[in-house]
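Input chain follows. Return structure tokens only.
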Amino acid sequence: MNGARNDIAVWTADGSATVELARMTGPAHGVVDPPVYLRAGPPPVGPQVDLDDPISKALLYQACLAGGSQFDIYRLVNLDELVRVWRLLDLPSGVAACWTRALHDAGLRPVGAIYRADTSGRVNTVAGLPEAGR
């Protein structure tokens, strides 16, 4: 990990468990087979994901953060790679806000997150948490 604090955790999207950032040591490269329930999307994820393709990696990470279990995140998401592809993720605003705060609290600086439109139809695009004041 790139010098992040190791005591930061964030809730899974469904609120069923916490994810410790220090344990997010999934593979950075190669091919992984996500579980069927993550493949259904949105967005749809293929039966095999090439982690050397940034778009494929981002889609997998998006599916994991928005709908995966604690185990899925630990097994499939690499924290350093998450920070690298963060700008490619299209997460629900609540999920993005929680993860952005956790990454910021850990001393990591994801840039250019895209938040989905909220119920009013507004879209929030932020260029890193501190600059956005969140």
